[in-house]
Amino acid sequence: MATRPIRYNGCVETKETNKANSQAASPANNQQAASPSAWSRYKEMTREVHRGFIAEWTVTIVLLLFATTTLVQAFVIPSASMEDTLLIGDHVLVDKLVFAPYGPVSRHTLPYRDVKRGDIIVFRFPLNIKEDYVKRAIGVPGDRIHLMNKQLILNGHAVNEPYVKHITSYMDTYRDDFPQPPNSSLPPSAIDMLQNHVENGELVVPPGYIFAMGDNRDDSLDSRYWGFVPRENIVGTPLIIYWSYEASTQDLTNPNIGIDHIVDVIAHFFTKTRWSRTFKLIHGYPLS
Fold it and tell me: Of 88 and 106, which is predicted with more confidence?
């Protein structure tokens, strides 16, 4: 059978001729042929390294996002309502897992529990869920609550509250003898609380809700003024103060990080940081 010719650069060569020419190629040509193969192997190894690096960082970022949205989250205390337990400028890590809704299996395998009296809770403000508040849980469903001359009476018994701070000497009939007829305008949620959940001069906490107050009892906008905290609004409980810095409420509540605040932190980091509060654990106080 005749061999079909292959035309190349105007010359006529057979397949056998082309094969013979290839075998007769110089060693230099063989080295040149080997070079692209080595470069290909290098590029392949580089691609493997890059893929491994990207994969590791992707997993790390996913885990961090999971942790910050599901397990713990950083918050800053912007007001004085929880003094002296929490101060303005305390930066805390909040455990978001402990009060999370649980399933039939996870309730036995993960550290879930319900809110107890005396727990410090972080929650979405009922009047504006875009805002986060921190208070102390005073009453759970079924509890009967009232204040008498600033003294908390819980289920018929006076309660010792060593964490409470009073900064005013005068008495406010509504704030300090709660629940009484309000002496200022209140939102509908607080009006509903007073009209439908007061029995024999005591506030009765309904199912699915928590009654919360600040430790700075005379300077706290809490359940007395806007009503109960829905259980589903509770985000978690503070675990630890990881940094505490003397700053104003205005600086901490500014949605845009002010250049003045940044400069202040840089210039006074060591002098305004409350070092004694760094890594301080935060605990609730059991009420009975």
Answer: 88
81 labelled catalytic: yes
Evaluate whether 112 touches 106 at the Cβ level (below 8 Å): yes
The answer to whether residues 49 and 179 belong to one domain is: no
- pTM value is 0.75
Helix (H, G, I), strand (E, B) or coil at 255: coil
135 is known as an active-site residue: yes
Residue 282 has pLDDT above 90, yes or no: yes
For tokens 């912007």, the residue is 78
Give yes or no: residues 93 and 163 share one domain: yes
Residue 249 structure tokens: 């409420």
Q: Are residues 95 and 112 in the same domain?
A: yes
pLDDT in tens, 47-69: 555 555 455 655 555 555 555 55
**Per-residue pLDDT at 119:** 98
Say which of 22, 35, 43, 81 is annotated catalytic.
81
Question: Which range marks the domain in which residue 62 is found?
Answer: 12-71
Query: Domain of 119: which CATH number?
Result: 2.10.109.10
Q: How far apart are CA 173 and CA 184, in angstroms?
A: 11
Select which of 22, 96, 116, 135 is catalytic.
135
Number of domains in the chain: 2
Neighbours of 143 (CB within 10 A): 18
Q: What is the pLDDT of residues 236-262, one digit of tens each?
A: 999 999 999 999 988 888 777 678 888
